[in-house]
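Exercise 3.2. Students should predict the tertiary structure of the chain below and write it as structure tokens, then compare their answer with the key that follows.

Predict this chain's 3D structure.
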Amino acid sequence: MRSYEYNGFMFEISVETDTKIQADRRTPLRHGFVAIVRIFKEGNAIAIFSPLRFGEAGGRPFATEADALMGGHSAARKIVDDLFSRDRP
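Answer key:
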């Protein structure tokens, strides 16, 4: 898990393995990683949202743990910018 500060918010980003199993077999079809993102207002112990789960576009998992961390961080920043920016008209 990694924590980041951004514009008065704290992001906690963790990575989980995401494995899809074929319906007719018990072998993994695809292996990857998803980012689990929690967003807190700085100084508050309760998250603003329930944990959010992010993968690549199209519902695919990220290829690496590092990609999942960076993807989760980018998604959290976009959420804060879009929902809590004071500069919006």
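Discussion points: The mean pLDDT is 87. The two ends are 35 Å apart (CA to CA).
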